[in-house]
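Aggregate trends can hide what the representation actually does to any particular protein. The sequence in question and its structure tokens are set out directly beneath this paragraph.
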Amino acid sequence: MQVFIAGSHTDVGKTSVSAALCYAFNLEYFKLVQAGIPTDNATIKNLSPNTKIHPSGITLQTPASPHIAMLKENIHYNGLEIPLPQASNLLVESAGGLFTPLDLESCMMDYLEKSKLPCVLVGRYYLGGINHILLSIEALKTRRIPLLGLIISKERNPQMDTFIQAYAQVKIAHLDSFNAENFEQCANTLKQEIQALKIF
């Protein structure tokens, strides 16, 4: 299984979800573009130490949009040419939201479209969260990118779930807030939801 983890917005919990999925489904981890320290690779290693972690496709030191970081650091690359690791069970985590810049000309969405990987969208509930989630789902549909499901991180809200399910006809699973002590329990609960919904 190969899957692309995208976010409806910045800081919605993509790395936490990625760690839980890697742990629960024994997936290898690949961060497409890392901008800033501490790295998401370090977070994955801390939460799921048995996960095989591939070096990031591009590593930038500046905690900013990649197109800004690459200019500041005088690094030049074509994001659409970042190769995927050779792995049959691979999770690819994007940076930011679907239309976060990947380089000076492309967005994360463009890489996802080119890679032809199925997508799991990660969202979170906050004021404006439904709008961000539905816009992201609509964008994926427009590009004909397979959407396996939506994972809501942190707080649950049944009323918001009901609206999104009715409007977008998408399967919704949840990753509850966790700490180091209950990470495995939360990851296994997410796995059970995903299997029950037949997302994977």
